[in-house]
Fold this protein.
Amino acid sequence: MTYAAFRSIGAYIPPKIMTNQDFEKIIDTSDEWITKRTGIKERRIAESNEASSDLGYRAAQQAIQRANINKNEIDLVICATVTPDFLCMPSTACLISSKLELENVMAFDVSAACTGFVYALNIAKAFIESGMKKNVLIVGAEKYSSILNYEDRTTCFIFGDGAGAAIISATTNKEEAIIDVHCSSDGAYEDLIKTPGGGSKHPCSQEVLDNKMACISMKGNETFKLAVKTLTSDVKEMLKRHNLSNSDITHFIPHQANFRIIKAVGEALNLSEEQTVVTVDKYGNTSAASIPMAMNFAFEEGKIKAGDTILFDAFGGGLTWGSALFKFAPKNK
């Protein structure tokens, strides 16, 4: 039987840092207020000539190198993003595959906001287990600075830019298999997190431009409450389904949206600070890139080892949510 294995992780962290003190200069806020409300101290900002595909390409290069495979062995590229290079086409995944000089490879984007990387993992697992693909490159890449209204003091300080990537490969070793991925959505809550303009409902117009309707808008308080409830219940169901306890989890890697959400979910699940990976203070919310960037940070810190049990947990606009449970299974050289 064929299983899907999580082989490698990589990331690209833009070098430019925007601190809370930088925001004090452009909006009515303070470092103390931002830190208390979100736990964010700084975030990374891509260069003006960089697009999401550029960030994703750099993360993908690292993931491929660490997976110890030839790039030409990749037979599917999936990019999770809500900040694609182009509004409609081509897909950012196609652009990443081109930058990698991959030929005749299936490539497409996933739009599931902050849950995008977990959605991409779920799709990769399905393609591999069906026997249709053998090595899937999944990427979460976001240039959130391109859709922020820097006059909106409720959202502009929350988000940052960056990318993360992973190689998911076929294996016959059940011990290496991704244990489970669960994803879901509820469009009834579409108004909580959205970019109102620029699509077919509100096509580009002077009104859209004047009112910055192509920028992200968010109802923070309502989102916070629903996120804590949904993230907690999804993980509890995942652990129950596989007869696992919180002590069986080596690393809990939640979506890095807000430290208060991470703390509340961790406490509800009785997960320790040592088990929980936190990077929201360093990178802010990078949407679909946040989970792989956080995993890469822990990996580069030497905390993630082969065989460790990892739990992803994400929640985003749509609304979407998802969790993934797997053993980290790097391929030996």
Summary: The mean pLDDT is 93. DSSP finds ten helices and 13 strands in the chain. The two ends are 23 Å apart (CA to CA).
